[in-house]
Structures are given as C-alpha cells and as structure tokens.
Design a protein that fits this description.
By secondary structure, the protein is an alpha+beta fold. It has a 4-stranded antiparallel sheet. Strands 4-5-3-6 form a 4-stranded antiparallel sheet. The chain is elongated, with a radius of gyration of 39 Å.
C-alpha cells in the first residue's frame, strides 16, 4: 500500500495539536477558585441530627411531656357560665377541674360619636337635637385637651351596625363619626387532670349537653414564674394613719343625689 506523505503529515499534525490543547486546558488554563464570601463563611454549617454526636443531640423535655399528659385545657369559652357548665360536666365524669380566665385577643370595635362641640352650650344643644330626633341614649364624654367635647352614641362590634347608627343621626342635622377601637376580651378555660386510665376528653359529650362547639383541647400552659417579694416590715400596732401611710378615703355608695364619677371611655354595646 502506498501512503500519501502530505496526508500522513497532516494527521500527525492534528494529533499533536489536540494533545497540546488537552495539556494546556488541564494544566495551564486552570480557572481560578471562586471568591470566598466572608459573611457566608462565618455562618455555621447545617447538620442533620444523625450527624451530631449523641451528647449534642436535642433531648425530649420529659417534664413538659409529663405536664402535657397530666394537665389538659378545654376552651376557650366566651363567658363564665358556659365554662362553669363544662367544668361541672367534666367533674361528673371523674375529671379534676379548675377554671381560669385570661385576656383574649383584642377584638375590633367601632365607636360612633359626635365631635366638634366647643362649649357646654353646643353640647346641650346637640343633646336636645338628638332627643327631638328620637335618640335619647347619647352620653356626654369627659372633655379632653386634644379632642374637646364629644357625645358618645355607642361602641359596636360590627361596622355595618355602626354605620346604621351614624346614618340615624343624619336627619337631625348633626354629623356622626366612626372611629376604630380595640376592646379587650376575657376568655375562660377549664384546666383538668384526667382520671387514671383516661387520656381523652369527651368533647362530643360536652357538645351534646349544649357546650360551645368551638372549644378544643390543648396542653395546659406552663405555670407563671413567681418573683420572690422583698421582706416588709410589720405594720404599726395602732390603727391610725400616719403621714407616710395615709388612710384610703371611704367612698359613699352611689345614689341619685350622689352619682358615681364618669368613666373615661365610651360604653360598650353589642
């Protein structure tokens, strides 16, 4: 076989070029390492629980688990009568019950009022105007430096009812305003200890007896930490008041001639 010399030379040249490029790409033209982000490098590395040594693995809180098993809370109830009814039903089934109250979430209320009353004469005129229009339950609010004199027409839990109340004032020629307010709500819970051998609370039986169907069961909250009080000195032997401990004034019962002092906030209406 006769080989073509130029073709042979070209094949060796291409092979040599490929070898040179391969060597240059792997040993010469090495890309530089990416820059290190110091902020990310300071962060601790995430590890699975299985990767931690046994001494560093989180342990279950045995005390909390025992508390959850020995104390359960049923609630929340919106009134004390419903809570007492549920406590009586559970006590009859062998549960040791304790009732407690706590401040619930703030509910939104809508206050309807008439403002812009500069003098006492303006307040009296507005009251007379409302009475002629059939609105006789308006209350005079204490005067404040920023808001002045105002007449309260009630606090409502629904915006639509507050708007209807404000519209009823329109025919009298007065302008009623609506302001958003936050009203604290008290809710009630029944803490109970299950009798031996029972780990579930019979909620369906409570619902059948007319207890609110919106209640649920959850673990009791942890007991609040009590701060030790500093020792106090013994009270004086005599019953007379001293200059450093004045006697509290005695308030007479409210009567028609001696009405109770007005409160600083508007009355709450449903």
């Amino acid at each position: 076989m006769i080989y073509n010399c130029p073709v042979r030379i070209a094949c060796f040249a291409l092979l040599f070029a490929n070898l040179v490029y391969f060597a240059w790409a792997h040993w010469v033209d090495v890309p530089p390492p990416p820059p290190v982000n110091l902020q990310i490098a300071r962060l601790p590395q995430l590890k699975l629980v299985e990767q931690l040594p046994p001494s560093q693995r989180p342990q279950a809180d045995a005390e909390k688990m025992a508390l959850n098993q020995n104390c359960l809370s049923v609630g929340p109830f919106d009134n004390l009568d419903n809570s007492a009814h549920a406590a009586a039903l559970l006590k009859a089934r062998g549960f040791e019950t304790r009732q407690r109250a706590e401040e619930g979430p703030m509910t939104e209320g809508y206050w309807v009022y008439i403002g812009g009353l500069k003098t006492q004469a303006d307040t009296d005129h507005a009251l007379e105007t409302l009475e002629r229009g059939g609105i006789k339950d308006a209350l005079v609010m204490p005067e404040t430096s920023d808001a002045g004199r105002r007449l309260s027409l009630g606090v409502y839990s629904e915006r639509a009812r507050a708007e209807r109340r404000a519209q009823a004032v329109g025919p009298t020629g007065l302008k009623a305003e609506i302001a958003d307010r936050r009203l604290p709500v008290s809710v009630y819970w029944v803490d109970l200890t299950p009798p031996p051998g029972i780990s579930a609370v019979p909620l369906q039986d409570l619902f059948a007896q007319g207890v609110s169907s919106r209640v649920a069961v959850q673990p009791c909250p942890p007991p609040a930490a009590t701060t030790p009080r500093a020792p106090t000195s013994a009270p004086p032997a005599t019953g007379t008041a001293t200059a450093t401990s004045p006697a509290a004034p005695t308030r007479e019962p409210a009567t028609a001639s001696n009405p109770p002092p007005p409160t600083g906030g508007p009355p709450n209406l449903p």
